[in-house]
Amino acid sequence: MATQRRTGTRAPGTGLRQLGDEELMQLIAGGDARAFEVIYERHATVAFSLAYRICGVRAAAEEVAQEAFLAIWRSGARYDRTRASVRTWLLGVVHNRAIDSLRRSTVHDRQRAADEHAAEHVEAPERTEVEVARREQARSMRAVLGALPDDQRRVVELAYFGGFTHEQIAEMLGAPLGTVKGRMRLALEKMRASIEPREAVL
Amino acid sequence: MSSGLEHRDFAESLAAYALGALPDEQSAQLRTHLASCRECRAELEWLRAAVDALPASVPQVEPPPELKGRVMELVDAEAELLQAAGEVADRPEPPARRRRRWPSISGWRPSVVLVSAAAAAVLLVGIVLALSSGVTTTTARTIHAQVTGPARLAGARASLRVRGSHVELVVSRLPTPAADHVDELWVQRGSKAPVPAGTFVVQSGSVVVGHPVRQGDHVLVTVEPGRGTRAPTTMPFIAAKV
What we know:
heterodimer, A: mainly alpha, 0% strand, globular, B: alpha+beta, 5-stranded antiparallel beta sheet, 8 helices, 10 strands, 21% strand
Protein backbone atom coordinates (compact mmCIF):
# COMPACT_ATOMS: atom_id res chain seq x y z
CA MET A 1 0.00 0.00 0.00
CA ALA A 2 2.85 2.30 0.81
CA THR A 3 4.11 2.22 -2.76
CA GLN A 4 0.67 3.12 -4.10
CA ARG A 5 0.38 6.13 -1.82
CA ARG A 6 3.81 7.32 -2.70
CA THR A 7 3.09 7.45 -6.44
CA GLY A 8 4.65 10.52 -7.94
CA THR A 9 7.37 10.84 -5.31
CA ARG A 10 10.91 9.61 -5.71
CA ALA A 11 13.13 7.74 -3.31
CA PRO A 12 16.14 9.78 -2.18
CA GLY A 13 19.00 9.51 -4.68
CA THR A 14 22.48 8.34 -3.75
CA GLY A 15 23.65 11.97 -3.98
CA LEU A 16 21.48 12.94 -1.04
CA ARG A 17 22.57 9.89 0.93
CA GLN A 18 26.16 11.04 0.70
CA LEU A 19 25.41 14.39 2.32
CA GLY A 20 25.95 15.03 6.01
CA ASP A 21 23.02 15.75 8.31
CA GLU A 22 23.84 19.48 8.49
CA GLU A 23 23.80 19.82 4.70
CA LEU A 24 20.53 17.91 4.52
CA MET A 25 19.02 20.33 7.07
CA GLN A 26 19.74 23.22 4.69
CA LEU A 27 17.77 21.42 1.97
CA ILE A 28 14.98 20.62 4.43
CA ALA A 29 14.72 24.34 5.28
CA GLY A 30 13.92 24.84 1.58
CA GLY A 31 11.17 22.20 1.68
CA ASP A 32 13.08 19.20 0.25
CA ALA A 33 11.08 16.13 1.30
CA ARG A 34 13.64 13.65 -0.05
CA ALA A 35 16.42 15.22 2.07
CA PHE A 36 14.13 14.79 5.07
CA GLU A 37 13.58 11.14 4.14
CA VAL A 38 17.33 10.52 4.43
CA ILE A 39 17.35 12.10 7.91
CA TYR A 40 14.41 9.90 8.87
CA GLU A 41 16.13 6.74 7.64
CA ARG A 42 19.33 7.60 9.51
CA HIS A 43 17.80 8.37 12.87
CA ALA A 44 14.41 6.65 13.05
CA THR A 45 15.64 3.66 15.06
CA VAL A 46 17.44 5.63 17.77
CA ALA A 47 14.56 8.13 17.98
CA PHE A 48 11.91 5.43 18.22
CA SER A 49 14.01 3.46 20.72
CA LEU A 50 14.31 6.46 23.04
CA ALA A 51 10.58 7.19 22.75
CA TYR A 52 9.77 3.54 23.46
CA ARG A 53 12.14 3.41 26.41
CA ILE A 54 10.40 6.42 27.97
CA CYS A 55 6.77 5.74 26.99
CA GLY A 56 6.97 1.95 27.34
CA VAL A 57 4.03 1.58 24.95
CA ARG A 58 4.49 1.16 21.23
CA ALA A 59 1.52 3.30 20.18
CA ALA A 60 2.65 6.23 22.34
CA ALA A 61 6.26 5.83 21.16
CA GLU A 62 5.14 5.92 17.53
CA GLU A 63 3.13 9.07 18.17
CA VAL A 64 6.08 10.74 19.90
CA ALA A 65 8.53 9.76 17.14
CA GLN A 66 6.13 10.98 14.46
CA GLU A 67 5.60 14.33 16.22
CA ALA A 68 9.34 14.77 16.71
CA PHE A 69 10.22 14.07 13.07
CA LEU A 70 7.46 16.39 11.85
CA ALA A 71 8.75 19.08 14.22
CA ILE A 72 12.22 18.67 12.66
CA TRP A 73 10.73 18.91 9.17
CA ARG A 74 8.66 21.99 10.01
CA SER A 75 11.39 23.85 11.86
CA GLY A 76 14.23 23.02 9.50
CA ALA A 77 15.00 26.70 9.00
CA ARG A 78 15.51 27.17 12.74
CA TYR A 79 18.20 24.51 13.07
CA ASP A 80 21.40 26.00 14.50
CA ARG A 81 24.40 23.84 13.63
CA THR A 82 26.62 25.64 16.13
CA ARG A 83 24.51 24.43 19.07
CA ALA A 84 24.13 20.69 18.52
CA SER A 85 24.34 17.92 15.95
CA VAL A 86 21.12 17.07 14.12
CA ARG A 87 20.99 13.76 15.98
CA THR A 88 21.33 15.42 19.40
CA TRP A 89 18.73 18.02 18.43
CA LEU A 90 16.28 15.37 17.23
CA LEU A 91 16.79 13.23 20.34
CA GLY A 92 16.24 16.32 22.50
CA VAL A 93 12.88 16.86 20.79
CA VAL A 94 12.00 13.16 21.19
CA HIS A 95 12.95 13.30 24.87
CA ASN A 96 10.86 16.42 25.57
CA ARG A 97 7.82 15.06 23.81
CA ALA A 98 8.12 11.61 25.33
CA ILE A 99 8.36 13.11 28.82
CA ASP A 100 5.33 15.33 28.06
CA SER A 101 3.43 12.23 26.98
CA LEU A 102 4.58 10.37 30.08
CA ARG A 103 3.63 13.25 32.39
CA ARG A 104 0.09 12.97 31.09
CA SER A 105 0.04 9.34 32.19
CA THR A 106 -0.12 7.96 35.72
CA VAL A 107 2.64 7.94 38.32
CA HIS A 108 2.58 4.14 38.15
CA ASP A 109 3.41 4.22 34.41
CA ARG A 110 6.20 6.67 35.04
CA GLN A 111 7.80 4.54 37.73
CA ARG A 112 7.64 1.62 35.31
CA ALA A 113 9.23 3.78 32.61
CA ALA A 114 12.12 4.60 34.91
CA ASP A 115 12.64 0.89 35.55
CA GLU A 116 14.16 -0.46 32.38
CA HIS A 117 13.83 -4.13 33.25
CA ALA A 118 10.04 -4.06 33.42
CA ALA A 119 9.62 -2.93 29.83
CA GLU A 120 9.31 -5.34 26.94
CA HIS A 121 12.17 -4.87 24.53
CA VAL A 122 12.51 -6.31 21.06
CA GLU A 123 15.93 -5.41 19.79
CA ALA A 124 16.27 -4.34 16.18
CA PRO A 125 18.15 -6.80 13.99
CA GLU A 126 21.73 -5.82 13.25
CA ARG A 127 21.84 -5.17 9.55
CA THR A 128 24.40 -2.58 8.66
CA GLU A 129 27.78 -1.65 10.01
CA VAL A 130 26.33 1.57 11.34
CA GLU A 131 23.71 -0.36 13.28
CA VAL A 132 26.32 -2.73 14.66
CA ALA A 133 28.39 0.26 15.77
CA ARG A 134 25.34 1.86 17.40
CA ARG A 135 24.56 -1.40 19.17
CA GLU A 136 28.11 -1.44 20.49
CA GLN A 137 27.75 2.16 21.65
CA ALA A 138 24.49 1.23 23.38
CA ARG A 139 26.18 -1.68 25.14
CA SER A 140 29.05 0.45 26.33
CA MET A 141 26.75 3.22 27.59
CA ARG A 142 24.64 0.61 29.38
CA ALA A 143 27.81 -0.72 30.95
CA VAL A 144 28.69 2.79 32.13
CA LEU A 145 25.22 3.23 33.62
CA GLY A 146 25.39 -0.25 35.12
CA ALA A 147 28.71 0.53 36.77
CA LEU A 148 27.18 3.44 38.71
CA PRO A 149 26.17 2.83 42.33
CA ASP A 150 22.45 1.91 42.45
CA ASP A 151 21.38 5.13 44.19
CA GLN A 152 23.10 7.28 41.54
CA ARG A 153 21.74 5.29 38.59
CA ARG A 154 18.26 5.40 40.07
CA VAL A 155 18.09 9.21 40.26
CA VAL A 156 19.34 9.53 36.68
CA GLU A 157 16.74 7.04 35.43
CA LEU A 158 13.90 8.62 37.40
CA ALA A 159 14.79 12.07 36.08
CA TYR A 160 15.72 11.36 32.46
CA PHE A 161 13.49 8.39 31.63
CA GLY A 162 10.74 8.99 34.20
CA GLY A 163 10.42 12.77 33.86
CA PHE A 164 10.30 13.39 37.63
CA THR A 165 11.61 16.60 39.17
CA HIS A 166 14.37 16.42 41.77
CA GLU A 167 11.82 17.30 44.46
CA GLN A 168 9.54 14.44 43.44
CA ILE A 169 12.49 12.05 43.39
CA ALA A 170 13.59 13.19 46.87
CA GLU A 171 10.08 12.49 48.13
CA MET A 172 9.87 9.09 46.43
CA LEU A 173 13.22 7.96 47.77
CA GLY A 174 12.78 9.59 51.17
CA ALA A 175 16.11 11.37 50.72
CA PRO A 176 17.00 15.05 51.29
CA LEU A 177 16.88 17.23 48.17
CA GLY A 178 20.58 18.06 48.46
CA THR A 179 21.43 14.35 48.47
CA VAL A 180 19.42 13.75 45.30
CA LYS A 181 21.11 16.68 43.55
CA GLY A 182 24.50 15.39 44.69
CA ARG A 183 23.79 11.90 43.34
CA MET A 184 22.73 13.35 39.99
CA ARG A 185 25.92 15.32 39.80
CA LEU A 186 28.18 12.40 40.74
CA ALA A 187 26.43 10.14 38.23
CA LEU A 188 26.77 12.60 35.36
CA GLU A 189 30.39 13.34 36.22
CA LYS A 190 31.28 9.63 36.13
CA MET A 191 29.40 9.07 32.88
CA ARG A 192 31.00 12.12 31.36
CA ALA A 193 34.48 11.08 32.40
CA SER A 194 33.94 7.66 30.83
CA ILE A 195 33.13 9.30 27.49
CA GLU A 196 36.27 11.40 27.54
CA PRO A 197 38.49 12.69 30.32
CA ARG A 198 37.95 16.28 31.43
CA GLU A 199 40.22 18.70 29.66
CA ALA A 200 41.84 21.62 31.36
CA VAL A 201 39.06 24.08 32.24
CA LEU A 202 39.38 27.36 30.39
CA MET B 1 27.73 39.40 38.88
CA SER B 2 26.01 36.98 41.23
CA SER B 3 26.98 36.63 44.87
CA GLY B 4 29.04 33.58 45.88
CA LEU B 5 26.14 31.89 47.65
CA GLU B 6 23.80 32.25 44.71
CA HIS B 7 26.41 30.94 42.36
CA ARG B 8 26.96 27.86 44.55
CA ASP B 9 23.23 27.17 44.71
CA PHE B 10 22.96 27.33 40.94
CA ALA B 11 26.11 25.29 40.39
CA GLU B 12 24.69 22.51 42.59
CA SER B 13 21.54 22.40 40.44
CA LEU B 14 23.33 22.10 37.08
CA ALA B 15 23.15 18.28 36.91
CA ALA B 16 19.44 18.29 37.79
CA TYR B 17 18.90 20.96 35.12
CA ALA B 18 20.81 18.97 32.50
CA LEU B 19 18.63 15.95 33.29
CA GLY B 20 15.46 18.03 32.92
CA ALA B 21 14.65 17.54 36.62
CA LEU B 22 14.33 21.17 37.70
CA PRO B 23 10.78 22.57 37.95
CA ASP B 24 10.02 25.26 35.34
CA GLU B 25 10.46 28.24 37.66
CA GLN B 26 13.85 27.07 38.94
CA SER B 27 14.94 26.29 35.37
CA ALA B 28 14.10 29.84 34.36
CA GLN B 29 16.09 31.27 37.28
CA LEU B 30 19.05 29.08 36.41
CA ARG B 31 18.92 30.18 32.76
CA THR B 32 19.09 33.80 33.92
CA HIS B 33 22.14 32.97 36.01
CA LEU B 34 23.76 31.09 33.11
CA ALA B 35 23.53 34.16 30.94
CA SER B 36 25.96 35.95 33.22
CA CYS B 37 28.09 33.06 34.55
CA ARG B 38 30.73 31.63 32.25
CA GLU B 39 31.84 29.04 34.79
CA CYS B 40 28.35 27.52 35.06
CA ARG B 41 27.93 27.57 31.28
CA ALA B 42 31.16 25.61 30.84
CA GLU B 43 30.18 23.13 33.57
CA LEU B 44 26.72 22.64 32.06
CA GLU B 45 28.21 22.01 28.64
CA TRP B 46 30.51 19.40 30.17
CA LEU B 47 27.67 17.61 32.02
CA ARG B 48 25.28 17.84 29.09
CA ALA B 49 27.49 15.59 26.98
CA ALA B 50 26.73 12.81 29.49
CA VAL B 51 22.99 13.45 29.19
CA ASP B 52 23.27 13.53 25.38
CA ALA B 53 24.84 10.05 25.53
CA LEU B 54 21.93 8.60 27.54
CA PRO B 55 19.76 7.82 24.48
CA ALA B 56 22.61 5.60 23.25
CA SER B 57 22.23 3.43 26.35
CA VAL B 58 18.70 2.46 25.35
CA PRO B 59 18.06 -0.96 23.75
CA GLN B 60 17.60 -0.31 20.03
CA VAL B 61 14.11 -1.14 18.82
CA GLU B 62 13.20 -0.87 15.15
CA PRO B 63 10.18 1.34 14.42
CA PRO B 64 7.34 -0.20 12.40
CA PRO B 65 7.60 0.50 8.64
CA GLU B 66 4.11 2.10 8.72
CA LEU B 67 5.56 4.93 10.81
CA LYS B 68 7.73 6.03 7.92
CA GLY B 69 4.74 5.79 5.58
CA ARG B 70 2.68 8.08 7.82
CA VAL B 71 5.46 10.62 8.36
CA MET B 72 6.45 10.79 4.69
CA GLU B 73 2.83 11.09 3.57
CA LEU B 74 2.44 14.29 5.60
CA VAL B 75 5.87 15.59 4.65
CA ASP B 76 5.24 15.00 0.93
CA ALA B 77 1.84 16.74 1.15
CA GLU B 78 3.36 19.74 2.92
CA ALA B 79 6.31 19.92 0.53
CA GLU B 80 3.85 19.99 -2.36
CA LEU B 81 1.85 22.72 -0.64
CA LEU B 82 4.93 24.81 0.13
CA GLN B 83 5.97 24.59 -3.49
CA ALA B 84 2.51 25.61 -4.76
CA ALA B 85 2.08 28.38 -2.17
CA GLY B 86 5.62 29.68 -2.71
CA GLU B 87 4.86 30.50 -6.34
CA VAL B 88 1.74 32.46 -5.43
CA ALA B 89 3.26 34.13 -2.36
CA ASP B 90 5.85 35.85 -4.53
CA ARG B 91 3.16 37.73 -6.47
CA PRO B 92 1.86 41.10 -5.29
CA GLU B 93 -1.36 40.84 -3.28
CA PRO B 94 -4.54 42.06 -5.01
CA PRO B 95 -6.42 43.23 -1.91
CA ALA B 96 -9.08 45.57 -3.35
CA ARG B 97 -10.64 43.02 -5.65
CA ARG B 98 -10.54 40.27 -3.05
CA ARG B 99 -12.29 42.42 -0.47
CA ARG B 100 -15.19 43.28 -2.72
CA ARG B 101 -15.99 39.61 -3.06
CA TRP B 102 -17.30 39.32 0.48
CA PRO B 103 -19.33 42.47 1.14
CA SER B 104 -21.08 40.78 4.03
CA ILE B 105 -17.84 40.36 5.96
CA SER B 106 -17.39 44.06 6.70
CA GLY B 107 -20.79 44.05 8.38
CA TRP B 108 -19.83 41.39 10.94
CA ARG B 109 -20.04 42.80 14.40
CA PRO B 110 -17.89 41.36 17.19
CA SER B 111 -20.61 41.59 19.83
CA VAL B 112 -23.42 39.97 17.86
CA VAL B 113 -22.82 36.42 18.96
CA LEU B 114 -23.01 34.95 22.41
CA VAL B 115 -22.34 31.26 22.40
CA SER B 116 -23.80 28.78 24.84
CA ALA B 117 -21.72 25.83 25.94
CA ALA B 118 -24.24 23.56 24.27
CA ALA B 119 -23.86 25.30 20.92
CA ALA B 120 -20.10 25.11 21.21
CA ALA B 121 -20.34 21.41 21.97
CA VAL B 122 -22.41 20.87 18.83
CA LEU B 123 -19.76 22.69 16.82
CA LEU B 124 -17.03 20.57 18.28
CA VAL B 125 -18.80 17.38 17.20
CA GLY B 126 -18.22 18.44 13.62
CA ILE B 127 -14.49 18.65 14.00
CA VAL B 128 -12.36 15.99 12.50
CA LEU B 129 -8.64 16.43 12.63
CA ALA B 130 -6.87 14.41 10.01
CA LEU B 131 -3.33 15.02 11.16
CA SER B 132 -1.97 11.56 10.63
CA SER B 133 -4.30 10.08 8.04
CA GLY B 134 -6.62 10.98 5.24
CA VAL B 135 -4.19 13.07 3.22
CA THR B 136 -3.63 11.39 -0.09
CA THR B 137 -1.65 12.78 -2.94
CA THR B 138 -3.29 10.80 -5.74
CA THR B 139 -6.65 12.15 -6.98
CA ALA B 140 -7.20 15.25 -4.81
CA ARG B 141 -7.42 18.71 -6.42
CA THR B 142 -5.47 21.41 -4.61
CA ILE B 143 -6.76 24.98 -4.50
CA HIS B 144 -4.58 27.79 -3.22
CA ALA B 145 -6.04 29.70 -0.27
CA GLN B 146 -5.25 33.33 0.39
CA VAL B 147 -3.67 34.05 3.76
CA THR B 148 -3.73 37.64 5.06
CA GLY B 149 -2.77 39.63 8.14
CA PRO B 150 -0.32 38.50 10.84
CA ALA B 151 -0.62 34.86 9.74
CA ARG B 152 0.74 35.82 6.32
CA LEU B 153 3.58 37.75 7.94
CA ALA B 154 4.37 34.69 10.05
CA GLY B 155 4.84 32.68 6.84
CA ALA B 156 1.62 30.67 7.16
CA ARG B 157 0.35 28.90 4.08
CA ALA B 158 -2.95 27.25 3.33
CA SER B 159 -4.72 25.36 0.59
CA LEU B 160 -7.85 23.31 0.06
CA ARG B 161 -7.64 19.68 -0.90
CA VAL B 162 -10.83 18.74 -2.72
CA ARG B 163 -11.80 15.17 -3.48
CA GLY B 164 -15.43 15.10 -4.69
CA SER B 165 -17.50 16.69 -1.92
CA HIS B 166 -14.78 15.96 0.66
CA VAL B 167 -12.78 19.09 1.42
CA GLU B 168 -9.77 19.44 3.70
CA LEU B 169 -7.97 22.60 4.66
CA VAL B 170 -4.21 22.01 4.66
CA VAL B 171 -2.22 24.55 6.67
CA SER B 172 1.39 25.05 7.58
CA ARG B 173 3.10 27.38 10.04
CA LEU B 174 -0.16 28.85 11.24
CA PRO B 175 0.30 31.05 14.34
CA THR B 176 -1.35 29.57 17.44
CA PRO B 177 -4.50 31.54 18.38
CA ALA B 178 -4.36 33.57 21.60
CA ALA B 179 -5.35 31.84 24.85
CA ASP B 180 -9.06 30.98 24.98
CA HIS B 181 -9.38 31.38 21.22
CA VAL B 182 -9.65 28.87 18.38
CA ASP B 183 -9.49 29.00 14.61
CA GLU B 184 -12.93 28.43 13.12
CA LEU B 185 -13.85 27.22 9.64
CA TRP B 186 -16.80 28.67 7.70
CA VAL B 187 -18.48 27.81 4.45
CA GLN B 188 -20.11 30.76 2.68
CA ARG B 189 -22.48 30.27 -0.24
CA GLY B 190 -22.97 33.36 -2.40
CA SER B 191 -24.03 36.32 -0.26
CA LYS B 192 -25.60 34.16 2.46
CA ALA B 193 -24.31 34.20 6.02
CA PRO B 194 -21.30 31.93 6.56
CA VAL B 195 -22.11 28.58 8.15
CA PRO B 196 -19.79 27.20 10.90
CA ALA B 197 -17.78 24.18 9.73
CA GLY B 198 -15.71 23.27 12.80
CA THR B 199 -13.01 24.70 15.01
CA PHE B 200 -9.35 23.73 15.28
CA VAL B 201 -6.02 24.58 16.83
CA VAL B 202 -3.45 23.21 14.41
CA GLN B 203 -0.17 24.81 13.34
CA SER B 204 0.59 22.45 10.49
CA GLY B 205 -1.56 19.63 9.21
CA SER B 206 -4.95 19.13 7.66
CA VAL B 207 -8.44 19.76 8.97
CA VAL B 208 -11.63 18.34 7.48
CA VAL B 209 -14.15 21.05 6.57
CA GLY B 210 -17.16 19.91 8.61
CA HIS B 211 -19.88 21.21 6.29
CA PRO B 212 -20.79 20.16 2.74
CA VAL B 213 -19.06 22.34 0.16
CA ARG B 214 -20.27 23.00 -3.38
CA GLN B 215 -18.53 24.43 -6.41
CA GLY B 216 -18.33 28.22 -6.02
CA ASP B 217 -18.53 28.23 -2.19
CA HIS B 218 -15.98 30.14 -0.13
CA VAL B 219 -14.13 28.41 2.69
CA LEU B 220 -13.00 30.92 5.32
CA VAL B 221 -11.11 30.79 8.59
CA THR B 222 -11.44 33.32 11.44
CA VAL B 223 -10.12 33.49 14.98
CA GLU B 224 -12.97 33.12 17.46
CA PRO B 225 -13.22 33.34 21.24
CA GLY B 226 -13.84 30.39 23.55
CA ARG B 227 -14.73 27.20 21.74
CA GLY B 228 -16.02 28.91 18.62
CA THR B 229 -19.06 30.95 17.65
CA ARG B 230 -22.14 30.54 15.45
CA ALA B 231 -21.36 33.56 13.31
CA PRO B 232 -17.95 35.09 12.60
CA THR B 233 -16.88 37.91 14.91
CA THR B 234 -13.57 38.73 13.19
CA MET B 235 -12.36 39.17 9.63
CA PRO B 236 -11.27 35.97 7.87
CA PHE B 237 -7.52 35.53 7.55
CA ILE B 238 -7.70 32.48 5.28
CA ALA B 239 -10.00 32.44 2.28
CA ALA B 240 -10.40 30.16 -0.72
CA LYS B 241 -13.02 29.69 -3.40
CA VAL B 242 -13.90 26.10 -4.32
